[in-house]
# Entry
Amino acid sequence: MNWQLLPQFAVTGLLAGGPLALTALGLVLIFKSTYIFNFAQGQLLLLGALFTWWFAVEVGTPLWLAILLAILLSALIGLLIERLALRPMTGQPLLSIILMTLGLSQVLHGLALLLFGGVQRNFPQIFSAANPYRLTTPFIYNEKPIVIILKQNLAWSFVIAILGVLVIGAFFRYTSTGLAMRGASEDHELAQSIGLRIRRIFGISWALAAVVATMGGVLLATSSGLDLSLSVVVLAAFPVVLLGGLESIPGTIVGGLLIGLSQGIVSASKVPLIRNMSEIMPYVVLLIVLLIRPEGLFGQRRIERI
# Structure
């Protein structure tokens, strides 16, 4: 282990876990309200980032307005997906609906390729890259304190992502719409019997998931650039969701931080074989946790009576 670089990689990994938690939040929103695991979330993230780039660069709007317009357009797409693709699947087996989202992911990916092409683009800078933050740690190496250097986009992306997760968590906990979405996920027929409008709730869930995906896509594109491979980041969000618990919003924060920290620590290794394992560390951590706690760290244990 490179002990001098370990604090740097660990903190960088923790901060990278923030946008990862926000990406995983979109998956939790759909599952929490509809009990469907959405395999098209990565493509919604990609389209949201591409819409922002198009409004900011091609149309020439201010970046804040481009983000707002992209959020509105993504919410509309989320509503259309629920209305045109998933609502006709009501009453069908759960596996069929999940496979529908898998097919939908390919359709959205093809749509992104058709509209924007496959070239990599420079995403507009939201945060300054010139003046990184410097943190002096209490750790000493070669009689000198270890200094951690943090890029502004990494630090602020983490702050915005965590605030986004907390705001959505408060929405589910303290608003009537959020409580109705939670109730609908427990039992659709029972929720309808007490007057909840299930179709409206499903539409709101998909629109909100698309908005969260756009926010995550913008934060990720500021640091890694923008191309069609951006949708692959959702593969790391799957372990975050399963690690924290499929229905737990706080679990996305803990899961994202744990996954990011594990990747950062492994990247600090001097052994090339171990260092190259950073891509598969989310799944290694996931396997270890699920062996101990199959429902995830904050998942609910369900007892079904026969």
The radius of gyration is 20 Å. The chain has one domain: 6-292. Residues 6-292 form a domain with the ABC transporter involved in vitamin B12 uptake, BtuC fold (CATH 1.10.3470). The CA atoms of residues 120 and 227 lie 5 Å apart.
